[in-house]
Amino acid sequence: MSFAGKTLPKWLVGGSSIAVAIGLMNVATYAYTMVAARLLGPKQYGAFAGLMATLLVISVLQLGLQATAARRISAEPGHVGQIEQTIMAVTYRAALAVGALLLVLTPLVNLVLRLDSYAAAALVAVAAVPMTVMGGQAGILQGERRWEALSLVYVANGLPRLLVGTALIVLEPSELTAMLGVVIGQFAPIVVGWYALRNERAPGDVGEHHSLRPVIRETVHNSQALFAFFALSNADVIVARNVLSDHDAGLYAGGLILTKAVLFLPQFVVVLAFPAMSSASERRRALTRSLALVGVLGVVATAGAWLLSGLALVFVGGQEYAEIQSRLWLFAVLGTVLAMLQLLVYSVLARQGQRSVYLVWGGLVALVGLGLTVSTLDALIAVVLSVDITLLVLLTLVSLYLVRHHTERPGSGFALPAAGDVPD
Fold first, then answer.
1. Of 20, 171, 223, 343, most Cβ neighbours within 10 A?
2. Measured distance CA(259)–CA(242) in Å, rounded
């Protein structure tokens, strides 16, 4: 196999089971999104999209836990028993805490998303609990290189939601039943994870390094970096709910179905490139090649959305969203930009950078601030694209400079280097 006339690097041709599982999860997830868009219609789907965007931002805690668990177990496999116990202790505490907090904030979620349904808003709190537990379980399996079990967890995170959720929406089309399908489906992966981790292990040597506080600190560090990106990539749908009419906000949310599909299309590249980006000797080549590959996939998707806009409209939600058919290629461009930004954020995690994340936070502030000044669908698309493209250029230049001009300690496998490897 080759890319740009060269043999593909090892990181790009390995991990096929994970790539397939993530692909199935994403296909099932976005199939459910398309079903919801078609059966609910723009107004109710706009509310459901707001709930899902909120849940996706909250998922950074899940991803932070997964990164922490995978790094620690990969780095010190001799302490896997203690690490597993500590990770799950932190995971359960975090799941209950975030669920309780979101339950208290239910009136605020209802107000910000303009739902008129406290029950739908409360389901975000319920879904957050199993979602967070999955993060700890997946991180342990990833750190132990148990790819088959991890693949099953990923598949279980998509298919049950599609099957159960679709049945519920058919019975009663509303944002409440759509969200209930998400909640029920979210328990499936933690059942798979529990079964895979059911055999308890001796804690082994007990050390302060793997106690609760260091694990919590690392999880917070990873989560805040991911939170910046997920907030950036999902804030626009919330802005749309507040500056556009319900109809136009629903149209914008429908277009974002295509954006999210393009965003997650190259997710396998992130999974496979991440270990190489953790190694000083491979970091620059992995970053440049993976950025190029994501860009190529994005160009193909954008061309398809432009040339086959009628077909793309079917996947977005059908004729009810026909008003945005001519703009679908712009939503594909947005997805491409976000996919490249996601890769850059994981590059920052791989080198445990600090100040680079401030650029993402700045982009979020700019997007919300400028987005709240517009009142039309086209103006909002222009603002979001302008902010994200500017951020992409800046973060690419900074990342390429840092990986080229700094000497870092090499990482190994899926382990992240120690904090501060690159003084950015």
1. 343
2. 20
